[in-house]
Design brief:
alpha/beta; putative 2-phosphosulfolactate phosphatase; seven-stranded mixed β-sheet; four-stranded mixed β-sheet; 10 helices; globular; binds D-malate
């Protein structure tokens, strides 16, 4: 039987019951999932996503302070008293290796937490797109491709990242998938943008906003296609590399 691919254009549209039994891939390209992939790629032990600041602070208290770092943003800026903001540039090997990172962001970490009901929930970005496709191709179940979006609306960069994943799955396993719920449209849109990802990020509303507050160089990092061959897997409240 063909495996269904459902695309959710924003985290707010995810039906937690509908994704039960599926493999879910969650993308918040600017910048939460790119940052999480970078931190794990740089040797951090685990990432704990939190929906809000209070939950993040409570999670930090369950560790010895020297073992854990606290990251996150509101309006793109570092939260007062936190160790890091949400820029992938901050999550260097030197700072994150062997640490646990608790992170809360406006949209990305929420979308991840809501996607926890899936059998497998993985973290998607341009950085690890093909690694995620490889992983999903090995799974024998339906797929939920979730764009975190922006405050309940869709965002072009997440849609394109999800669309490229859908396109890879369908092309690499002809006849095995049945794309539904806006999946073909996302894939079509994404293919038209292939090779122009950096430009797409620069011209996206959130990319323009990040540039205006001094994070233009993050856009280059977040566009670094397939630079990290890792599959971050979210299970029992923690994201680790499979
Ligand atoms: C979010 O979760 O909304 C983003 O990652 C915001 C950001 O660019 O830091």
């Amino acid at each position: 039987m063909r495996k269904r691919i459902r695309f959710y254009p924003s985290g707010a549209e995810v039906n937690e019951q509908e994704i039960v039994g599926t493999t879910a891939a969650v993308a918040d390209v600017l910048r939460a999932t790119s940052t999480i992939v970078t931190a794990l790629g740089n040797g951090c032990k685990a990432v704990i996503p939190a929906t809000d600041i209070k939950t993040a602070l409570a999670a930090v208290r369950s560790f010895r302070r020297q073992d854990v770092l606290l990251g996150g943003e509101r309006m793109g800026r570092k939260i007062d008293g936190f160790d890091f903001g949400n820029s992938p540039q901050e999550y260097t090997r030197e700072r994150v290796e062997d640490k646990v990172i608790v992170i809360t962001t406006t949209n990305g970490t929420k979308a991840l937490v809501y996607a926890q009901t899936a059998v497998r929930t993985v973290v998607l970005s341009f950085l690890n797109l093909t690694a995620i496709a490889d992983f999903i191709l090995q799974q024998e179940r339906d797929v939920s491709v979730i764009a975190a979006g922006n405050d309940g609306d869709d965002s072009i960069e997440d849609t394109v990242c999800c669309g490229l994943l859908i396109d890879q799955l369908v092309r690499r396993a002809p006849g095995q998938f049945q794309p539904c719920q806006a999946s073909p449209r996302a894939a079509q849109l994404a293919v038209a943008q292939q090779g122009k990802i950096q430009q797409l990020l620069r011209q996206s509303p959130h990319g323009e906003y990040l540039t205006s507050i001094g994070y233009e160089s993050d856009l280059t990092l977040c566009a670094d296609m397939d630079s990290r061959s890792i599959v971050p897997h979210y299970s029992h409240g923690r994201i680790t590399i499979i």
